[in-house]
Amino acid sequence: MALSFSANAQNKEKPTEVMLETTAGNIRLKLYDSTPLHRDNFLKLVNLHVYDSLLFHRVIKDFMIQCGDPKSKDAAPGVFLGEGDLDWTVEQELRLPQIFHRRGVLAAAREPDDANPYRESSACHFYIAWGKKFTDEELDKMQQRLDTLYGYRVKLTPEMRTAYKTVGGIPHLDGGYTVFGEIVEGLDVVDKIQQTATDKNDRPLEDQRILKAYVIAPIVAKRQGLSDRQTRRR
Fold first, then answer.
1. Which run of H or E residues covers position 180?
2. How far is residue 228's CA from residue 115's CA, in Å, rounded to a whole number?
């Protein structure tokens, strides 16, 4: 099953794509050029094989699947995961209303606002959005919630509302988390993973693992590293 919406204007260069080979099947991702800091950071980690053998350690049905804890690679069954990270953060790159939390997008996880007032992204934690389909009434209430959270700075446009009603997603995360890519192929794999049984900490009872992650589209040399400008050290 494929899901692809052009969320950013691509230049003549072929967009960068990454394959996640998982225990549930393959997920093919397209990274957005309009979020270059997150794109470059993700590519760096993929090329360093950071994601190879990591678990989807947090899975919530009708919400999202999350990966990126380095400690999950060799974690024993039932161990609480999610606190492992690398020693930098990435500056937030919001691109609303063009890029938002519709079903099938790739986004960066982060620490909560009280510990992270600039809402900078984790170095390595990411999630793939699933969510639900909304009614107009539910979206009206969601807009009120977003107005309270972000002081009327985040507005659900007609295009966003149509996507949330017909495709689904997680609108309450708009304005707070950076979306930096989308699924090209493998939405059915995400569906399979998000329906798996989990323990009280949302860890799947049966491990859902990335076996291997690798770049499958050409990238220019400048994308293979991160400059000091692109990241903030803790």
1. strand 179-185
2. 22
Six-digit token pair at 172? 């309450």
Rounded alpha-carbon distances, angstroms, from residue 71 to 27, 66, 152, 214: 22, 14, 39, 20
Alpha-carbon gap, residue 151 to 52, rounded angstroms: 40
Token duo for residue 178: 């950076």
Distance CA 214, CA 107 (A): 18
Query: What is the CB neighbour count within 10 angstroms for residue 223?
Result: 18
């900078």: which residue's tokens?
120
% of residues, the chain, pLDDT over 70: 86
Taking residues 160-167, what's their average pLDDT? 98
- Is residue 202 within 8 A of residue 58, CB to CB? The reply is yes
Q: Rounded to the nearest 5°, which phi and psi values hold at 65?
A: -120, 135
